[in-house]
Amino acid sequence: MDMLSAAAFSLTEMFRSADLTWPTALYLLGGVGETVLLVMGGMALGLLLGTVMASVQVYGPAWAGRLVGLYVWFFRGVPILVLMFLFFFGLSTQLEAAVFAVFGVRATVSEFACAVVVLGLCSTAYQSQIFRGAMQSIPAGQFKAALALGLSPAGAVRGVILPQALRISIPAWSNEYSIMLKDSAIAYVIGVSEVMSRFKAVASTNHKTLLMYILAGVVYYVLTAAGVRLLLKLYETVRIPGLADMDASQ
Amino acid sequence: MFKKLPVLFALLMLLSVPALAQDKVFVNGIDANFPPFAYIGPDGKATGFDVDAMNWIAKEMGFKVEHKPMEWSGIVASLKARKIDMISSGLSKTEERATQIDFSAPYWTIKQVVVVAKDSTLTADQALKSGLRVGVQSGTSDAKTMADVNGQEGREYELVEYPSSALAAQDVLNGRIDAAVMNDAPAAAAAAKIDVKIVGEAGLPNEVFAIGVAKDDPETLKLVNEGLAKIMADPYWQELIEKYQPGQVQ
Questions:
Q1: What is the reported pLDDT for A247?
Q2: Within this chain, do residues B104 and B35 fall inside the same structural domain, yes or no?
Q3: Residue contact A44–B69, C-beta within 8 A
Q4: Which of B56, B127, B222, B242 could form a disulfide with B179 if both were Cys (CB 3.0 to 4.6 A apart)?
Q5: What are phi and psi of B204, to 5 degrees?
């Protein structure tokens, strides 16, 4: 009991000496909302484009597969930081100028939109490879049988292959989620007010850098652990027993 | 589940679409790591000498202003790309910047000072002439000036760049650098919080702060200049100086 109250006391002391008032704490936690939205947007974009690209690579013509390979090679090779700057300061201004020239409307691409697009495009590269592996682990006969039954290739992929492939991929996808969560911190360089940038701003005022960045780490850890746990729970629910598992720990 | 995906995606894209133009809200880009000119206050909102002054100017001149924390090293680029409408955040007026953006009338003079650890015996002169490691904030005018004059008039140091002056001060304490050069205002703010001290001026020319506005934006420049003239003639200016004590009275 004594140790507990001593720990609680020193924790509150630490918080107080760091000028961590309730409004400041709320400001810091508000960054979680931005981070979660970033990750959701990026994962959604990656899921959409990743499944399309994986299907093209596995079932499409060879030249299309090569194009996808080129995309994957590029977005896996260039650091996300470089891409953020490229999109935000370079491409988005070109886009805005083009929109102005064509429609006469001054639109602005928000840094949030830019970050989601960059995170999404990068994640697409990795997710496409996850889905590709899952699709290739499904016996080839299934696709042929679907075609023989009269389904179009796209219909076969959507109705027969994807339901299985997506289920198999969930463990690997949860890994991609945790990577994306960490990569979302890079969005601070283009000014997205997410967790990292908010903790940094408060740290510049109270100068308690060690405490602030440890707390930031805790926030990210909680987000990662909670998300992965939820995804693995989903996996347990929708899993098809007996089908090739990408998660070797079965 | 897939049927909901396009809807979800469309929703996410909608979040990024710029709001329909109602009353124009001017966006002031700030560096939230620059006390006492611009930082995140204990109420979790942007505050500081420049932020409060701009709020007063906005009310007086009849426009709405929103303060947007961003990375300092990209802030001029953001202004040029019209992602923000002005920079009122301890922006030094330099010749190089004047070729890229327009400036309001100057409103503050700033000195560059040398910060060392409290128990250090270095003088300002020694810190800059002994081949030591000296930290600066990247993207600032002092960073550029320090890089330019290195080697002249006996000056000899190894320049190390940091994302903010606060971090540079922190690293002086950590011992990774021997001294840091920064504006006197954040130096005073750091010296009040951690065990560093100001040992003297860095021997660099004094600089002036002015509000940055994009070139070919005469309306904003006019608004800003008029507002600035009004506030500097108002007793509120003295109130702000007393409240934030920006290290030096004009």
A1: 52
A2: yes
A3: no
A4: B127
A5: -100, 155
Torsion angle of the four alpha carbons A219, A222, A224, A225, in this order, in degrees rounded to the nearest 10: 170
Q: What confidence tier does B77 reach under pLDDT thresholds 50, 70, 90? A: confident
Residues facing B179 on adjacent strands:
B134
For residue B20, give the DSSP letter: P
What angle do the packed helices A111-136 and A22-59 form, to 10 degrees? Answer: 40
Is pLDDT above 80 for A6? no
> In this structure, what token pair is assigned to residue A132?
């590709």
Question: Angle A62-77/A22-59 helices, nearest 10 degrees?
Answer: 150
Task: Please indicate, yes or no, whether residues B116 and B187 belong to a single structural domain of this protein.
Answer: yes
Exposure letters A206-245 (e unless 16+ CB within 10 A, then b):
bbbbebbeebbeebbeebbeebbeebeeebeeebeeeeeb
List of chain A residues whose C-beta atoms are within 8 Å of the C-beta of residue B74:
85, 88-89, 189-191
**Mean pLDDT rounded to a whole number for chain A:** 88
Residue A191's SS3 state is: coil
Q: How many domains, in total, are found in chain B?
A: 2
Q: Is there a contact between A190 and B78 (Cβ–Cβ < 8 Å)? A: no
Q: Could you give the ipTM of this predicted complex?
A: 0.72
The whole-number pLDDT of residue B104 equals 93
Better pLDDT: B83 or B57: B57
Domains detected in chain A: 37-208+223-238 (1.10.3720.10)
Phi, psi of B68 (to 5 degrees): -120, 110
